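User: I want to check something. If I give you two sequences, will you return the structure for each one separately, not as a complex?

Assistant: Yes, each is folded on its own. Here is the first sequence with its structure:
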Amino acid sequence: MWDPSARRAPASDEGIPVSEVKLAWTLVVAACALGAWLTPWMIPVPPWIDPRPWWAGGKTPLSMALGATLLIPGALLGLAAVRALGRGGTLVTTGPYRFVRHPYSLAILLLLLGVVVALRSLPAIALLVPAVRLTFDRARREEHNLRLAFGERHERYCARVPFILPLSPPLPPGGLDADGGSDIRLRLEDDDAQE
Protein backbone atom coordinates (compact mmCIF):
# COMPACT_ATOMS: atom_id res chain seq x y z
CA MET A 1 0.00 0.00 0.00
CA TRP A 2 1.28 3.48 -0.83
CA ASP A 3 2.40 5.50 2.18
CA PRO A 4 2.83 9.21 1.40
CA SER A 5 4.83 9.73 4.58
CA ALA A 6 7.47 7.31 3.32
CA ARG A 7 8.84 9.90 0.91
CA ARG A 8 11.36 12.21 2.47
CA ALA A 9 10.83 15.95 2.53
CA PRO A 10 13.06 17.64 -0.04
CA ALA A 11 16.12 18.87 1.77
CA SER A 12 19.79 18.86 0.94
CA ASP A 13 20.64 18.05 4.55
CA GLU A 14 18.45 15.98 6.85
CA GLY A 15 19.16 18.32 9.76
CA ILE A 16 17.94 21.51 8.08
CA PRO A 17 14.29 22.60 8.47
CA VAL A 18 12.48 22.98 5.16
CA SER A 19 9.85 25.44 3.99
CA GLU A 20 6.28 24.19 4.23
CA VAL A 21 5.27 25.98 0.98
CA LYS A 22 2.39 27.71 2.73
CA LEU A 23 1.84 30.37 0.07
CA ALA A 24 1.74 27.97 -2.89
CA TRP A 25 -0.51 25.58 -0.97
CA THR A 26 -2.89 28.37 0.03
CA LEU A 27 -3.11 29.68 -3.53
CA VAL A 28 -3.85 26.26 -5.05
CA VAL A 29 -6.46 25.43 -2.40
CA ALA A 30 -8.11 28.84 -2.92
CA ALA A 31 -8.03 28.39 -6.72
CA CYS A 32 -9.74 25.01 -6.40
CA ALA A 33 -12.54 26.40 -4.23
CA LEU A 34 -12.91 29.49 -6.40
CA GLY A 35 -12.94 27.35 -9.55
CA ALA A 36 -15.80 25.29 -8.16
CA TRP A 37 -17.77 28.39 -7.26
CA LEU A 38 -17.20 30.09 -10.66
CA THR A 39 -17.88 27.02 -12.82
CA PRO A 40 -21.51 27.91 -13.68
CA TRP A 41 -20.32 31.26 -15.02
CA MET A 42 -17.23 29.88 -16.79
CA ILE A 43 -19.08 27.24 -18.84
CA PRO A 44 -21.92 28.74 -20.84
CA VAL A 45 -24.86 26.41 -21.39
CA PRO A 46 -27.68 27.34 -23.76
CA PRO A 47 -30.87 28.23 -21.87
CA TRP A 48 -32.90 25.49 -23.55
CA ILE A 49 -30.74 22.81 -21.84
CA ASP A 50 -32.36 22.21 -18.49
CA PRO A 51 -31.15 20.95 -16.11
CA ARG A 52 -27.49 21.86 -16.57
CA PRO A 53 -25.21 18.89 -17.30
CA TRP A 54 -23.25 17.73 -14.23
CA TRP A 55 -19.93 18.80 -15.74
CA ALA A 56 -21.15 22.36 -16.35
CA GLY A 57 -21.49 23.09 -12.65
CA GLY A 58 -24.42 24.40 -10.73
CA LYS A 59 -25.87 23.07 -7.55
CA THR A 60 -28.83 20.79 -7.10
CA PRO A 61 -30.49 19.75 -3.84
CA LEU A 62 -28.87 16.31 -4.13
CA SER A 63 -25.39 17.69 -4.84
CA MET A 64 -25.70 20.13 -1.95
CA ALA A 65 -26.76 17.33 0.42
CA LEU A 66 -23.88 15.10 -0.72
CA GLY A 67 -21.43 18.00 -0.46
CA ALA A 68 -22.68 18.82 3.04
CA THR A 69 -21.78 15.29 4.19
CA LEU A 70 -18.16 16.25 3.45
CA LEU A 71 -18.24 19.97 4.26
CA ILE A 72 -19.65 19.70 7.78
CA PRO A 73 -17.22 17.04 9.08
CA GLY A 74 -14.36 18.84 7.30
CA ALA A 75 -15.18 22.15 8.98
CA LEU A 76 -15.58 20.54 12.41
CA LEU A 77 -12.34 18.60 12.03
CA GLY A 78 -10.47 21.75 10.99
CA LEU A 79 -11.78 23.67 14.00
CA ALA A 80 -10.91 20.79 16.35
CA ALA A 81 -7.38 20.58 14.91
CA VAL A 82 -6.75 24.31 15.34
CA ARG A 83 -8.20 24.24 18.85
CA ALA A 84 -6.05 21.25 19.85
CA LEU A 85 -2.87 22.94 18.60
CA GLY A 86 -3.33 25.97 20.81
CA ARG A 87 -0.33 28.26 20.69
CA GLY A 88 2.06 25.55 19.49
CA GLY A 89 5.54 24.77 20.72
CA THR A 90 4.68 21.24 21.88
CA LEU A 91 3.98 17.96 20.13
CA VAL A 92 0.19 17.63 20.26
CA THR A 93 -1.04 14.03 20.48
CA THR A 94 -4.56 14.61 21.82
CA GLY A 95 -7.86 15.59 20.21
CA PRO A 96 -7.96 14.84 16.48
CA TYR A 97 -4.17 14.27 16.57
CA ARG A 98 -4.94 10.95 18.30
CA PHE A 99 -6.42 9.65 15.04
CA VAL A 100 -4.14 11.14 12.34
CA ARG A 101 -0.93 13.15 12.34
CA HIS A 102 -2.32 15.81 10.01
CA PRO A 103 -6.01 16.38 10.80
CA TYR A 104 -5.98 19.96 9.49
CA SER A 105 -4.76 18.75 6.08
CA LEU A 106 -7.45 16.07 6.09
CA ALA A 107 -10.04 18.74 6.96
CA ILE A 108 -8.94 20.94 4.04
CA LEU A 109 -9.16 17.99 1.64
CA LEU A 110 -12.66 17.13 2.93
CA LEU A 111 -13.74 20.75 2.49
CA LEU A 112 -12.38 20.95 -1.06
CA LEU A 113 -13.99 17.67 -2.06
CA GLY A 114 -17.26 18.82 -0.46
CA VAL A 115 -17.22 22.04 -2.49
CA VAL A 116 -16.50 20.15 -5.71
CA VAL A 117 -19.36 17.71 -5.04
CA ALA A 118 -21.82 20.37 -3.86
CA LEU A 119 -21.24 22.60 -6.88
CA ARG A 120 -20.69 19.80 -9.43
CA SER A 121 -17.57 21.36 -10.86
CA LEU A 122 -15.42 19.62 -13.49
CA PRO A 123 -12.79 22.43 -13.61
CA ALA A 124 -12.44 22.24 -9.84
CA ILE A 125 -11.71 18.50 -10.12
CA ALA A 126 -8.75 19.42 -12.33
CA LEU A 127 -7.59 21.87 -9.65
CA LEU A 128 -8.21 19.33 -6.90
CA VAL A 129 -5.38 17.10 -8.13
CA PRO A 130 -2.58 19.65 -7.55
CA ALA A 131 -4.27 20.74 -4.30
CA VAL A 132 -4.11 17.16 -2.99
CA ARG A 133 -0.51 16.76 -4.13
CA LEU A 134 0.57 20.01 -2.50
CA THR A 135 -1.30 19.13 0.69
CA PHE A 136 0.56 15.81 0.97
CA ASP A 137 3.86 17.51 0.12
CA ARG A 138 3.25 20.19 2.75
CA ALA A 139 2.42 17.52 5.35
CA ARG A 140 5.64 15.63 4.53
CA ARG A 141 7.64 18.83 4.93
CA GLU A 142 5.92 19.49 8.26
CA GLU A 143 6.82 15.93 9.34
CA HIS A 144 10.47 16.65 8.57
CA ASN A 145 10.44 19.80 10.69
CA LEU A 146 8.60 18.06 13.55
CA ARG A 147 11.13 15.23 13.45
CA LEU A 148 13.92 17.77 13.87
CA ALA A 149 12.13 19.58 16.70
CA PHE A 150 10.86 16.62 18.73
CA GLY A 151 13.19 13.76 17.77
CA GLU A 152 12.48 10.37 19.31
CA ARG A 153 9.10 11.38 20.76
CA HIS A 154 7.88 12.31 17.27
CA GLU A 155 9.22 9.01 15.91
CA ARG A 156 7.15 7.12 18.52
CA TYR A 157 4.11 9.19 17.56
CA CYS A 158 4.63 8.45 13.84
CA ALA A 159 4.94 4.74 14.55
CA ARG A 160 1.52 4.67 16.27
CA VAL A 161 -0.61 7.21 14.38
CA PRO A 162 -1.41 7.13 10.62
CA PHE A 163 -0.28 9.94 8.33
CA ILE A 164 -3.55 11.46 7.04
CA LEU A 165 -6.23 8.75 6.80
CA PRO A 166 -7.51 7.22 10.08
CA LEU A 167 -6.91 3.57 9.19
CA SER A 168 -5.71 2.27 12.58
CA PRO A 169 -6.96 2.49 16.17
CA PRO A 170 -6.45 5.89 17.81
CA LEU A 171 -4.16 6.72 20.69
CA PRO A 172 -5.71 6.64 24.18
CA PRO A 173 -7.69 9.79 25.15
CA GLY A 174 -4.69 11.28 26.96
CA GLY A 175 -2.52 11.13 23.84
CA LEU A 176 0.85 9.49 23.28
CA ASP A 177 1.90 9.29 26.92
CA ALA A 178 -1.44 8.14 28.37
CA ASP A 179 -0.57 4.45 28.02
CA GLY A 180 2.43 4.21 30.31
CA GLY A 181 4.74 7.19 30.46
CA SER A 182 3.95 10.80 31.06
CA ASP A 183 5.70 13.97 30.00
CA ILE A 184 6.80 14.49 33.62
CA ARG A 185 8.27 11.00 33.81
CA LEU A 186 10.06 11.47 30.48
CA ARG A 187 11.53 14.78 31.66
CA LEU A 188 12.67 13.19 34.95
CA GLU A 189 14.34 10.33 33.07
CA ASP A 190 16.12 12.87 30.85
CA ASP A 191 17.31 14.79 33.94
CA ASP A 192 18.57 11.56 35.55
CA ALA A 193 20.45 10.64 32.37
CA GLN A 194 22.19 14.02 32.31
CA GLU A 195 23.46 13.63 35.92
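And separately, the second sequence with its own structure:
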Amino acid sequence: MTESPVACHGDECHPYPGGYKGDWKFPLSTETIAWYNSRMALRRTSHAVYDTKYHLVWFPKYRKDLFAQEYLRERAAEFFREIAEEYEYNIAEMEVAKDHVHLFLSFPPKYSIGEVVRTLKSISARELFRQYPSIKKRLWKGELWEDGYFARTVGDQLTSDMIERYIRHHRDEKQSSAQLGFLKLR
Protein backbone atom coordinates (compact mmCIF):
# COMPACT_ATOMS: atom_id res chain seq x y z
CA MET A 1 0.00 0.00 0.00
CA THR A 2 1.38 3.41 -0.97
CA GLU A 3 0.65 6.35 1.26
CA SER A 4 1.58 9.98 0.85
CA PRO A 5 4.16 11.26 3.30
CA VAL A 6 2.78 13.40 6.04
CA ALA A 7 4.24 16.42 7.80
CA CYS A 8 2.94 17.03 11.29
CA HIS A 9 2.95 20.46 12.85
CA GLY A 10 1.79 20.26 16.45
CA ASP A 11 -1.36 18.11 16.40
CA GLU A 12 -2.09 18.83 12.73
CA CYS A 13 -0.82 16.54 9.97
CA HIS A 14 -0.90 17.34 6.25
CA PRO A 15 -0.07 14.96 3.38
CA TYR A 16 2.58 16.06 0.91
CA PRO A 17 1.29 16.16 -2.68
CA GLY A 18 2.84 13.61 -5.02
CA GLY A 19 3.53 11.08 -2.30
CA TYR A 20 6.23 8.55 -1.56
CA LYS A 21 6.10 4.93 -0.56
CA GLY A 22 5.57 4.30 3.10
CA ASP A 23 4.05 6.22 5.95
CA TRP A 24 6.37 9.19 6.51
CA LYS A 25 5.52 11.27 9.54
CA PHE A 26 7.59 14.13 10.89
CA PRO A 27 6.18 15.30 14.22
CA LEU A 28 7.72 18.75 14.76
CA SER A 29 6.92 21.16 17.52
CA THR A 30 6.19 24.80 16.75
CA GLU A 31 9.43 25.71 18.53
CA THR A 32 11.46 23.29 16.40
CA ILE A 33 10.02 24.67 13.17
CA ALA A 34 10.61 28.27 14.29
CA TRP A 35 14.20 27.47 15.31
CA TYR A 36 14.94 25.72 12.02
CA ASN A 37 13.38 28.47 9.88
CA SER A 38 15.25 31.20 11.76
CA ARG A 39 18.58 29.58 10.82
CA MET A 40 17.80 28.62 7.24
CA ALA A 41 18.22 31.18 4.47
CA LEU A 42 16.21 29.31 1.90
CA ARG A 43 16.15 30.61 -1.64
CA ARG A 44 13.62 29.71 -4.28
CA THR A 45 13.47 29.29 -8.02
CA SER A 46 10.44 28.17 -10.00
CA HIS A 47 11.36 24.50 -9.44
CA ALA A 48 13.71 24.40 -6.45
CA VAL A 49 14.12 25.47 -2.87
CA TYR A 50 17.77 25.52 -1.82
CA ASP A 51 20.34 26.63 0.71
CA THR A 52 23.75 26.29 -0.90
CA LYS A 53 26.87 28.27 -0.09
CA TYR A 54 30.30 28.11 -1.69
CA HIS A 55 33.69 29.62 -0.89
CA LEU A 56 35.53 30.18 -4.20
CA VAL A 57 39.10 31.40 -4.71
CA TRP A 58 41.07 31.96 -7.92
CA PHE A 59 44.16 33.82 -9.07
CA PRO A 60 45.27 36.03 -11.94
CA LYS A 61 47.50 34.29 -14.47
CA TYR A 62 51.04 33.72 -13.16
CA ARG A 63 49.79 34.99 -9.75
CA LYS A 64 50.66 38.53 -10.86
CA ASP A 65 49.73 41.49 -8.67
CA LEU A 66 47.33 42.79 -11.31
CA PHE A 67 45.00 44.38 -8.78
CA ALA A 68 47.57 46.35 -6.79
CA GLN A 69 45.69 49.58 -7.56
CA GLU A 70 42.55 50.16 -5.51
CA TYR A 71 40.50 51.35 -8.50
CA LEU A 72 41.11 48.03 -10.32
CA ARG A 73 40.08 46.00 -7.26
CA GLU A 74 36.93 48.10 -6.89
CA ARG A 75 36.06 47.81 -10.58
CA ALA A 76 36.60 44.03 -10.57
CA ALA A 77 34.34 43.76 -7.50
CA GLU A 78 31.69 45.83 -9.30
CA PHE A 79 31.85 43.46 -12.26
CA PHE A 80 31.44 40.43 -9.99
CA ARG A 81 28.39 42.05 -8.34
CA GLU A 82 26.86 42.87 -11.75
CA ILE A 83 27.45 39.34 -13.02
CA ALA A 84 25.98 37.91 -9.81
CA GLU A 85 22.86 40.00 -10.19
CA GLU A 86 22.42 39.00 -13.83
CA TYR A 87 22.82 35.27 -13.12
CA GLU A 88 20.93 35.09 -9.78
CA TYR A 89 24.04 34.51 -7.65
CA ASN A 90 24.01 35.97 -4.15
CA ILE A 91 27.41 37.21 -2.93
CA ALA A 92 27.57 37.19 0.87
CA GLU A 93 31.21 38.30 1.11
CA MET A 94 33.89 39.19 -1.42
CA GLU A 95 37.51 40.27 -1.48
CA VAL A 96 39.43 41.18 -4.60
CA ALA A 97 43.03 41.16 -3.37
CA LYS A 98 46.04 42.26 -5.39
CA ASP A 99 46.77 38.69 -6.51
CA HIS A 100 43.61 36.61 -5.91
CA VAL A 101 39.84 36.73 -5.47
CA HIS A 102 37.68 35.33 -2.64
CA LEU A 103 33.94 34.93 -3.14
CA PHE A 104 31.49 33.52 -0.65
CA LEU A 105 28.25 33.06 -2.52
CA SER A 106 25.11 31.10 -3.14
CA PHE A 107 23.62 30.24 -6.51
CA PRO A 108 20.69 28.19 -7.82
CA PRO A 109 21.24 24.43 -8.17
CA LYS A 110 20.68 24.66 -11.93
CA TYR A 111 24.30 25.87 -12.15
CA SER A 112 27.38 23.75 -11.48
CA ILE A 113 30.31 25.15 -9.52
CA GLY A 114 32.47 25.03 -12.65
CA GLU A 115 29.86 26.88 -14.68
CA VAL A 116 29.61 29.66 -12.08
CA VAL A 117 33.40 30.07 -11.89
CA ARG A 118 33.69 30.04 -15.69
CA THR A 119 30.95 32.68 -16.00
CA LEU A 120 32.48 34.97 -13.35
CA LYS A 121 36.01 34.63 -14.73
CA SER A 122 35.20 34.97 -18.43
CA ILE A 123 32.85 37.96 -18.21
CA SER A 124 35.04 39.80 -15.70
CA ALA A 125 38.14 39.21 -17.87
CA ARG A 126 36.42 40.43 -21.02
CA GLU A 127 35.14 43.60 -19.33
CA LEU A 128 38.39 44.37 -17.49
CA PHE A 129 40.40 43.94 -20.71
CA ARG A 130 37.93 46.17 -22.55
CA GLN A 131 38.09 48.96 -19.96
CA TYR A 132 41.76 48.58 -18.99
CA PRO A 133 43.79 47.31 -22.00
CA SER A 134 47.04 47.88 -20.09
CA ILE A 135 46.25 44.80 -17.94
CA LYS A 136 46.48 42.54 -20.99
CA LYS A 137 49.98 43.84 -21.76
CA ARG A 138 51.22 42.53 -18.40
CA LEU A 139 50.19 38.97 -19.31
CA TRP A 140 52.05 36.75 -21.75
CA LYS A 141 49.15 34.96 -23.41
CA GLY A 142 46.45 37.55 -22.82
CA GLU A 143 44.50 35.45 -20.31
CA LEU A 144 43.49 37.17 -17.09
CA TRP A 145 42.77 34.23 -14.79
CA GLU A 146 44.54 30.96 -13.96
CA ASP A 147 42.69 27.90 -15.27
CA GLY A 148 42.03 26.40 -11.83
CA TYR A 149 40.15 27.47 -8.74
CA PHE A 150 39.50 26.45 -5.14
CA ALA A 151 35.93 25.57 -4.14
CA ARG A 152 34.49 24.55 -0.79
CA THR A 153 30.87 23.88 -0.01
CA VAL A 154 29.65 25.28 3.27
CA GLY A 155 27.21 23.21 5.25
CA ASP A 156 26.13 25.06 8.33
CA GLN A 157 25.90 28.49 9.92
CA LEU A 158 29.05 28.03 12.02
CA THR A 159 31.13 27.28 8.93
CA SER A 160 29.48 30.16 7.05
CA ASP A 161 30.33 32.61 9.82
CA MET A 162 33.92 31.37 9.96
CA ILE A 163 34.45 31.83 6.22
CA GLU A 164 32.86 35.29 6.21
CA ARG A 165 35.14 36.32 9.10
CA TYR A 166 38.17 34.84 7.33
CA ILE A 167 37.48 36.85 4.18
CA ARG A 168 36.84 40.08 6.13
CA HIS A 169 40.01 39.49 8.19
CA HIS A 170 41.98 38.73 5.04
CA ARG A 171 40.77 41.99 3.48
CA ASP A 172 41.94 43.96 6.54
CA GLU A 173 45.31 42.25 7.03
CA LYS A 174 48.45 43.05 5.11
CA GLN A 175 48.86 40.22 2.63
CA SER A 176 51.74 37.81 2.76
CA SER A 177 52.70 35.02 0.40
CA ALA A 178 52.10 32.44 3.15
CA GLN A 179 48.44 33.38 3.62
CA LEU A 180 47.11 31.21 0.82
CA GLY A 181 49.72 28.49 0.72
CA PHE A 182 47.06 25.85 1.32
CA LEU A 183 45.27 26.91 -1.86
CA LYS A 184 47.93 25.86 -4.36
CA LEU A 185 46.18 24.95 -7.56
CA ARG A 186 49.01 23.02 -9.21
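Because they were folded independently, the notes below concern the second chain alone. The first strand starts at residue 6 and ends at 9. Confidence is low (pLDDT under 50) at residues 1-26, 181-186.
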